[in-house]
Amino acid sequence: SSRNLSPCPLPEMANIQRKRLVSAVLGLVISAGAIFTLIAIVSPGDLKSAFSAFNPLYIAPFALTVALMVVCFGYRWHVLLRGAISKPMAVKAMLINMGGNMVLPARGGDLLRIHFSNAVGNAPVAVVVGAMFTEKAADLLAICLIGTLGGMVLGLGDAAHRAVIASSAVICLFVVASLTVVRTKNSLVQRICLWTFTKMRRDKFFHEHVSQLIASLGENLQLCRFARTMAITLVLWLTIHGASYLCIARLVGVSLSYPEALLVLWVSGLGLMIPAAPSGLGVYHATVVSAFYFLGRPISEGLVLATALHLSFFVALVVPMGLLYGKWLLKRSLTQ
User: Please, which pLDDT band fits residue 247 given cuts at 50, 70 and 90?
Assistant: First the structure.
């Protein structure tokens, strides 16, 4: 059973902790560098004038888009786990995940979702992790398609347009090729991984964890199942997620069209894959600013929008996540 796993040996645990520390320090360094760069290129006067058009009427619509986002992404998680956890629990898992990523380094909210889903459902850890890998692949493909669509609709300059199309196409082809190999050559992938882990003298770990993970990935990548996941993902990113960016742009008085919002969403989505401090502090802001530079817009507006987006999502996700996760931990401790 996945819930009765033997504890890691002390040397291995120490090694894991060292890797986490290195990852956290690297993220902080990258974030600090991004923040200092932004401070150097944006004047305080530009920021002050850009923030002067605050419109609180868009707070409620933004809160609604965030709630819809959590519910819909939670439903997708329920689908990916094939009903191993109920829809309400899947929504709670997603809220814990999204809020956790805002306060924990190295996207630690993902680990919280794995732990929560395994604790409240019947799916083994390998199955949960396999579902998450499938979800991340669908998100990456959706982001690249959205960037391509935004660039085409905006009719950017030839060089910029080619850069958007080329980068999106390369990422899409790499992801599709990788997923195709895992789906159609699952047994071959298993043998290659077994050989690799055996050479590292970790064949026991492979049989206990990795083998089931690869098999779960292959099942999730069946054409009909993955097509359903992609359809849900594209609709969510194109509608609710895009609408949340538009709401915050209106909130701080930044003029942003829907295609421009999609392009900002594309760049910021790719930027969040870079190791950084919790919630992508600094790096996220830099990617949004780069999108505005890409669009030929004032970078001060990009920094205003990035700051407003970061703060708004932080408040909207972290507060309910903290209450929910604390309540769950308390209830679990009382019942044990």
Answer: very high
